[in-house]
Amino acid sequence: NDVGIGDKGMKWDFHSAYPLDDENGDDENYHFYTTWKTRKDGTKRRVIDYIFYSSARSNDGNGRRGALVTGADEGELSCTHTLSVPKDEEVEATRFPGLRYPSDHLLIAAKFEI
Q1: pLDDT, position 22
Q2: Which of 2, 4, 5, 11 is nearest to 56 (CA)?
Q3: Which of 108, 111, 105, 104 is nearest to 50 (CA)?
Q4: Going by DSSP bridges, is the β-strand pair 52-53/42-46 parallel, antiparallel, or unpaired?
Q5: Is the pTM of this model over 0.70?
Q6: Backbone angles phi and psi of 89, in degrees to 5
Q7: Distance between CA atoms of 34 and 10, rounded to whole angstroms?
Q8: Is the pLDDT of residue 25 over 50?
Q9: Alpha-carbon distances, residue 61 vs 10, 11, 55, 67, 70 (angstroms)
Q10: pLDDT on residue 54
């Protein structure tokens, strides 16, 4: 998506810190989720919390990307670590919230470097 700022355009290339839509294809047992609740219509595990990041670069109008505008001299912002989510057997049968995980949302966090 191009976002205009004054007379200069900015190119935003957003990435998710966590894999989305089965991007983690190497591990068939990996299922990223941020909530797992039982409601009237049943039990559902899904992603409703996200961490997105981007390195904004100036755009010269011809599709060429210029210098980072984040203040960094060189390099791209990259995600180096994320907190893991519990395995199925680590979650109580009542799902979330529960005694072990008292919120209906899991804590997610990411560490970045430039």
Answers
A1: 54
A2: 11
A3: 108
A4: unpaired
A5: no
A6: -70, -10
A7: 31
A8: no
A9: 9, 10, 17, 14, 19
A10: 85
Q: What is the pLDDT of residue 68?
A: 44
Pairing of strands 78-82, 110-113: antiparallel
pLDDT higher at 76 or 30: 76
What is the maximum alpha-carbon separation in the chain? 56
User: SS in 3 state form for the chain?
Assistant: CEEEECCEEEECCCEECCCCCCCCCCCCCCCCCCEEEEECCEEEEECCCCCEECCCEEECCCCCEEEECCCCCCCCCEEEEECCCCCHHHCCCCCCCCCCCCCCCCCCCEEEEC
Q: How far apart are CA 54 and CA 98, in angstroms?
A: 35
pLDDT of residue 52: 92
Distance CA 22, CA 38 (A): 23
